[in-house]
């Protein structure tokens, strides 16, 4: 099995605390051979964490043209994603990039075309989390009958001292809705995996805390193409945390608790299922390796990432314009069909 030589770009929270632990578990598949970050000091600190003496590059473009990497991992501010993906494609270097794919749908116009020229994988780990994958399987098998309605309640306990809140580019976000889109694309990826495509959104949003940089509260009323309706309610800055998705069918209800990796079926039948607790990053990088070796890119495709972002943007636009917004219209309006 040939190892993939990775160049890491961005030495922040995602690279240090999410990607590196996953890559260490996959050391038979990957080796980190290069690092580039906003400052040499940050790159050096990350290289020490890696511990295998990767080469430090002062320039991203120099890294891309060095011949010392087989693929590049982007974990940079969201607004930089489109331009940095484009430069990797032009250098003919496969890229795996953290989500969201772009700060808004308009800024993502080139992404689909670029992904046809080279391998672009958007790192949406929620598509790989076992509890959502098992929930999708159970719903498709009719365990709750015909899905009718859903409710997702998500309260996020982010205070002023939270490490994500303290990130400079998140304090003055260039991406729509700040944390609402940064975290929301995760949830929309999971929702779509379990219940299918979203047709339209009616939303309300508010900003309650200045330190969170943008809207921190949103309620999206959502209608899916299947006819299922429901609500997604999210609140950043809550004093307590909660994250639960309930889906009611005509025979039973399934409750999905991500943090506990638990599924509960209640109603006419009762069942409790515990699945492997995983944040999805190991599975994500394993899938990226398979795609690099010729497998079709399904879970990390640019189109899937754009659909996730379009749902959030539709909800925020609805809140602003006080009207129902079709998700397909946003994608078509940006020529992203």
From TrEMBL:
<dbReference type="GO" id="GO:0006740">
    <property type="term" value="P:NADPH regeneration"/>
</dbReference>
<dbReference type="GO" id="GO:0000166">
    <property type="term" value="F:nucleotide binding"/>
</dbReference>
<dbReference type="InterPro" id="IPR055170">
    <property type="entry name" value="GFO_IDH_MocA-like_dom"/>
</dbReference>
<protein>
    <submittedName>
        <fullName>Putative dehydrogenase</fullName>
    </submittedName>
</protein>
<dbReference type="InterPro" id="IPR036291">
    <property type="entry name" value="NAD(P)-bd_dom_sf"/>
</dbReference>
<dbReference type="Pfam" id="PF22725">
    <property type="entry name" value="GFO_IDH_MocA_C3"/>
</dbReference>
<dbReference type="InterPro" id="IPR000683">
    <property type="entry name" value="Gfo/Idh/MocA-like_OxRdtase_N"/>
</dbReference>
<dbReference type="GO" id="GO:0016491">
    <property type="term" value="F:oxidoreductase activity"/>
</dbReference>
<feature type="domain" description="GFO/IDH/MocA-like oxidoreductase">
    <location>
        <begin position="132"/>
        <end position="254"/>
    </location>
</feature>
<dbReference type="GO" id="GO:0005737">
    <property type="term" value="C:cytoplasm"/>
</dbReference>
<dbReference type="Pfam" id="PF01408">
    <property type="entry name" value="GFO_IDH_MocA"/>
</dbReference>
<feature type="domain" description="Gfo/Idh/MocA-like oxidoreductase N-terminal">
    <location>
        <begin position="5"/>
        <end position="123"/>
    </location>
</feature>
């Amino acid at each position: 099995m040939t190892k993939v030589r990775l160049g890491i770009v961005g030495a922040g929270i995602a690279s240090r605390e999410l990607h590196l632990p996953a890559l260490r578990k996959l050391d038979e598949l990957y080796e980190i051979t290069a690092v580039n970050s906003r400052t040499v000091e940050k790159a050096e600190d990350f290289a020490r964490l890696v511990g295998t003496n990767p080469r430090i590059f002062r320039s991203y473009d120099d890294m891309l043209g060095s011949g010392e990497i087989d693929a590049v991992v982007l974990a940079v501010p969201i607004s930089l994603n489109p331009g940095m993906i484009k430069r990797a494609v032009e250098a003919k270097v496969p890229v795996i990039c953290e989500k969201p794919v772009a700060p808004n749908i308009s800024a993502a116009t080139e992404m689909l075309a670029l992904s046809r020229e080279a391998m672009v994988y958007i790192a949406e780990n929620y598509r790989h989390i076992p509890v959502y994958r098992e929930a999708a399987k159970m719903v498709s098998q009719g365990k709750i009958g015909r899905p009718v309605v859903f409710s997702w309640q998500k309260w996020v306990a982010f205070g002023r001292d939270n490490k994500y809140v303290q990130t400079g580019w998140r304090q003055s976000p260039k991406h729509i809705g700040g944390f609402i889109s940064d975290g929301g694309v995760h949830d929309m990826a999971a929702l779509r995996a379990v219940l299918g495509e979203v047709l339209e959104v009616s939303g309300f949003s508010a900003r309650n805390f200045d330190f969170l940089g943008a809207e921190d509260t949103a309620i999206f009323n959502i209608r899916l193409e299947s006819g299922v309706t429901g609500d997604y309610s999210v609140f950043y800055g809550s004093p307590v945390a909660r994250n639960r998705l309930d889906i009611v069918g005509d025979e039973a209800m399934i409750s999905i608790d991500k943090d506990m990796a638990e599924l509960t079926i209640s109603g006419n039948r009762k069942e409790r299922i515990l699945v492997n607790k995983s944040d999805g990053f190991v599975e994500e990088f394993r899938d990226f390796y398979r795609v690099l070796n010729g497998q079709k890119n399904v879970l990390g495709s640019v189109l899937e990432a754009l659909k996730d972002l379009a749902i959030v943007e539709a909800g925020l636009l609805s809140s602003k314009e006080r009207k129902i917004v079709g998700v397909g219209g946003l994608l078509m309006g940006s020529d992203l069909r």
